[in-house]
Amino acid sequence: MATMIDVQDVTKRFGNMLAVDQCSLQVEQGTITGLIGPNGAGKTTLFNMVAGAFAPSSGRILLDGEDVTGLEAHALFSRGLLRTFQIAQEFSHMTALENLMMVPARQAGENFFNACFRRGAVLAEETETRKKAEDVLGILKLTHVKNEKAGNLSGGQKKLLELGRVIMAEPRVVLLDEIAAGVNRTLLNDLAAVVQRLNREDGLTFFVIEHDMDLIARLCDPVIVMAAGTVMVEGPMSEIRNNPEVIEAYFGGTPADGER
Ligand SMILES: Nc1ncnc2c1ncn2[C@@H]1O[C@H](COP(=O)(O)OP(=O)(O)OP(=O)(O)O)[C@@H](O)[C@H]1O
Q1: Ligand 1 atom at shortest distance from the alpha carbon of 45
Q2: What spacing in Å lies between the alpha carbon of 42 and ligand 1's midpoint?
Q3: Do the Cβ atoms of 10 and 46 come closer than 8 Å?
Q4: DSSP per position, 100-168
Q5: Taking each helix axis from N to C terminus, what angle separates 155-169 and 185-202, rounded to the nearest 10 degrees?
Q6: ipTM score assigned to the predicted complex
């Protein structure tokens, strides 16, 4: 199995604060890899570096074998890595369908030459994009709100739409950042099912930060536990749950059911 994301000895300092401390981890191609750990463990900082929000202070990050250390999000996107993004304010007045239709980075309609001289091709492409967006709405069970403005959707529906935008972009690896937060159980089941389907059927690799341990247990294998800026342990959730070091890091030694 090829390594999709390879974090090598990465450190991130904010002034005197060592947020990530010589951390090394791998996300293998075709996996749904979870990243968990107590508050302040460095998960978000690590994610931010992998997603191109900021560069590491030291260390290297490889994407599918290529050194991408310090590349910005748009450069990573063109290499197939995408992080779920909140529906930006400016898109909230657009409908669910429009939000999906505008995702492809290089729509023919945006190309001046095509717009002027190849109108037929542009129209064909728009029809194709609309069809794909409608299919994605169907997968997400959002067809009934396709003409609703994104800003009027429930929190859970917005998360599903975010995932829809990811599907439209056709990435190879997706970073999911706390998708369960504020989502009801029914919609969460839909979200989890879509992630599993994309993983199994389309071979998408997922790297998931999540505080909902049930969701992690259901989706992720392996699970990487971070503490104090580095990796503490890695393995299937069934092992992680009973690992004394993990219990100590989360609960100060008080045995619990693994829920934060
Ligand atoms: N921009 C910043 N400036 C200064 N310190 C920061 C910054 N971002 C994060 N930190 C610090 O780095 C450490 C790691 O934070 P981080 O948000 O990465 O942890 P986390 O594991 O994602 O925590 P949580 O689960 O609470 O989101 C924390 O002590 C945090 O206060």
Answers
A1: 18
A2: 6
A3: yes
A4: HHT--TT-GGG-HHHHHH-HHHHHHHHHHHHHHHHHHHHHTT-GGGTTSBGGGS-HHHHHHHHHHHHHH
A5: 10
A6: 0.97
In angstroms, how far is CA 119 from the centroid of its own chain? 35
CB 79, CB 68: distance < 8 Å? yes
Strands 17-28 and 3-14: antiparallel
Query: How many whole angstroms separate alpha carbon 202 and alpha carbon 79?
Result: 17
Tell me if 48 sits within 8 A of 42, measured CB to CB: no
Ligand 1 binding site (Cβ under 6 Å of any ligand atom): 14, 17, 19, 37, 39-45
Domains along the sequence of the chain with CATH: 1-80+171-260 (3.40.50.300), 91-167 (no CATH)
This prediction has a pTM of: 0.87
- Strands of the 58-63 sheet, one edge to the other: 17-28, 3-14, 58-63, 66-67
Tens of pLDDT, residue by residue over 55-114, are 999 999 999 999 999 999 889 988 999 988 655 565 889 999 999 998 754 344 444 555
Mutate to test the pocket of ligand 1, among 16, 23, 44 (most ligand atoms within 8 A of CB): 44
Bridge partners of residue 25, in order along the sequence:
7
Spatial distance between the Cα atoms of 191 and 19, rounded to a whole number of angstroms: 30
